[in-house]
């Protein structure tokens, strides 16, 4: 299971082979996947947020989810230290670094590699492993954290009975980390899916934050079950 940034990843090998002049032996399943991939690409590149991200120089359309949350909840400010979990390809880190400015700092983490970003310290590793957490804490040093962002999600199987516990596990890890590292008054933004366990996690977050709301940003695809829990005013 890979911890991703929320944007689905797909194999384009059949398309690349076709463009290269190769003639692979397609099964009906492979042909169906190729057609599905073409439809996904058509929807992706016609997406208004994809076009806007390209026009404004952001790494992914997902950045607009964070920017909408920022507009409504004002979680980020100049000089803040921010942790971005599940950062690849870097859209959230990019936006957070721009807001935090030269006096602030963003520490990003993902299981996948990420191209460097100005103002961002990147750690590649699995957030579920103790060794990765130690590296993350070493990077933070003695400075407390103002905001924890988590756009983490597992590779989804399409079976809610399997996917939902995996999603909640990552949410719980992000909440535990926030409780350990946030300064009083700090904030947590975490992606969560509607389904079993959602209400319990929401209640648990309210035990540590004075204000907890859920957001469904306009840039979040309507067919997606994802929501963003925005918890502010952390209280020890």
Characterization of the model:
This protein has 236 residues and is α/β, with parallel strands linked by helices. It has one domain (55-234): 3-Layer(aba) Sandwich (Rossmann fold). The chain is 42% helix and 21% strand. The protein has helices spanning 13-19, 28-46, 48-56, 63-73, 91-100, 130-140, 160-181, 198-206; strands spanning 81-85, 105-110, 120-124, 145-150, 182-193, 209-215, 226-234. The protein has a seven-stranded mixed β-sheet with strand order 3-2-1-4-5-7-6, with helices on both faces. Strand 4, helix 7 and strand 5 (182-193) form a beta-alpha-beta unit. The longest helix has 22 residues, at 160-181. It is globular. The model is unreliable at 1-32 (pLDDT under 50).
Please, how many helices? 8
Radius of gyration: 19 Å
Largest sheet: 7 strands, mixed
* Oligomeric state of shown chains: single chain
What is the CATH homology-level superfamily?
A: Vaccinia Virus protein VP39
Rounded average pLDDT: 84
Instruction: Please give the share of residues in helix.
Output: 40-55%
Poorly predicted regions are 1-32
The fraction of residues in strands falls at 15-25%
**Would you state the CATH class?**
Alpha Beta
Keywords:
7 strands, disordered N terminus, alpha/beta, 236 residues, seven-stranded mixed β-sheet, 21% strand
Topology:
Blueprint: H1 13-19, H2 28-46, H3 48-56, H4 63-73, E1 81-85, H5 91-100, E2 105-110, E3 120-124, H6 130-140, E4 145-150, H7 160-181, E5 182-193, H8 198-206, E6 209-215, E7 226-234
Parallel strand pairs: 1-2, 1-4, 2-3, 4-5
Antiparallel strand pairs: 5-7, 6-7
